[in-house]
Amino acid sequence: MGHPQKILVAHEVVHVHDLDGWAGTKDVELYGKARAEGFEAIITNDGKQLSRPLEVRAIADSGLHRIEYRTNHKHGGLVALGTAIATVCAALPHALEDLAGAEGQRLVFLTSIDPSRNSRLRITDPVAEPPKHWPAA
Hints:
single chain, two-stranded antiparallel ribbon, 4 helices
């Protein structure tokens, strides 16, 4: 069993595969099992769960908060992974703060960051566009 990673001071985040006997648990069983074990929320990138009646029922019956982030399928590989990580890291603390004061179950949808090149970086040539105080060539 792996060690839970503390990415938030007041919360423990653990992957289902790191829990003994949980790997391979179907979503329909996962929510009830998580509730019975004392979990308060599930973070998922499975956007289709809410279109499957049995899973919707399991989510509702569990009373757990459901936090969804989207995986960007337009961009693959490292860009998709980076987008998912950035989205969760940027939005999760806000979501958890709001959930701490919530009465009853909540469904949370994290808004993905824009992974497009122009939104994520800017490259300049310091010779052509020197920043203030840049030494002369």
